[in-house]
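Support request from a user on the community tier.

User writes: "When I paste my structure tokens into the form, the page sometimes reloads and wipes my input. The last time it worked, I copied everything first. Here is what I submitted, just in case something in the input itself triggers the reload:"
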């Protein structure tokens, strides 16, 4: 692992951990974690060398993401653009492994906290053909 890649690995670990806990793009904790992770991406980008064409492409992605956030009030495109900005010369297999293990860890923590009653175990009751069906939220 290159020393320069550590910030992007931290970024993906933080974001996937939050996603594993069920946090979404509108959650303030998730947005804070994403902004904190974005600092890691910017740190990596500072040390990488980019060609003019790459910089222009990244700016287009960021502008589209910001416009989508302002007009559509969704963060998905903006967050994806930030992810793409930091992925230059990064081993994707390591990113996927980090995301898997951090999401698995957060899932285990979520199950544990739910089973001891620290967090509420939400469910929704649906009626289909006169029978009740339980769907976990």
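"...and here is what came back when it finally went through:"
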């Amino acid at each position: 692992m290159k020393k320069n890649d550590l910030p992007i690995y931290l970024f993906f670990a933080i974001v996937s951990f939050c996603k594993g806990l069920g946090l979404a793009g509108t959650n303030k904790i998730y947005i804070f974690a994403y902004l904190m992770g974005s600092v890691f991406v910017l740190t990596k980008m500072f040390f990488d060398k980019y060609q003019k064409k790459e910089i222009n492409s990244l700016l287009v992605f960021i502008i589209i993401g910001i416009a989508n956030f302002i007009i559509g009030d969704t963060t998905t495109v903006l967050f994806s653009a930030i992810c793409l900005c930091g992925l230059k010369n990064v081993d994707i297999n390591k990113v996927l492994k980090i995301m898997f293990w951090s999401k698995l860890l957060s899932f285990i923590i979520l199950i544990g906290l739910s089973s001891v009653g620290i967090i509420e175990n939400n469910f929704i009751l649906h009626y289909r053909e006169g029978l009740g069906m339980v769907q976990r939220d």
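Agent notes: The reload is a front-end session timeout and is unrelated to the input. The longest strand covers residues 123-128. The chain has a mean pLDDT of 81. Escalated to web team.
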